[in-house]
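Review this:
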Amino acid sequence: MSTDSRTTADSRQTILSQIRVLVAQLHRSARTVERKTGITNAQLFLLRQLGEVDGLSINDLAARARTSQSTASIVAKRLAVAGLVARAQSTADGRSTILSLTPAGRRMLRKAPPPPAQSLFDGIDALTDAEARALAKALRPLIRKLHLESEQPTVLFEE
């Protein structure tokens, strides 16, 4: 095997190892959240967003979670059904729904561990601009080879 071939094989192995470490840690953390709280990582992450800024619209919540409006709406409905979030029609715009934490939602936040999604967001936000551009550029071909370009991203670990 030539040096170039060995370097390429080592690089591919390193990529797989790094993806495995990332996915395994996110998976373990998400299961811990579910076991300790009874809600999903995505639900806890959105709950935390409301804990930081109460009274968000679905669109504002989606922007803070870096996800689609429809995904934020679905997760918010689950939180409302669980009694952790209250939904109210906006007084400024009757077409908009405003979300607020309920007392049960506040209690949940006090006892819950940090959601794994937050660690991932924090890690991505800590990258330099050059590192972020390089990572985005490096992931594009993998997403394309896996035929995932048309996938609509959801909040992590939410069905």
Q: What stands out?
A: Residues 3-145 form a domain with the Arc Repressor Mutant, subunit A fold (CATH 1.10.10.10). DSSP finds seven helices and three strands in the chain.
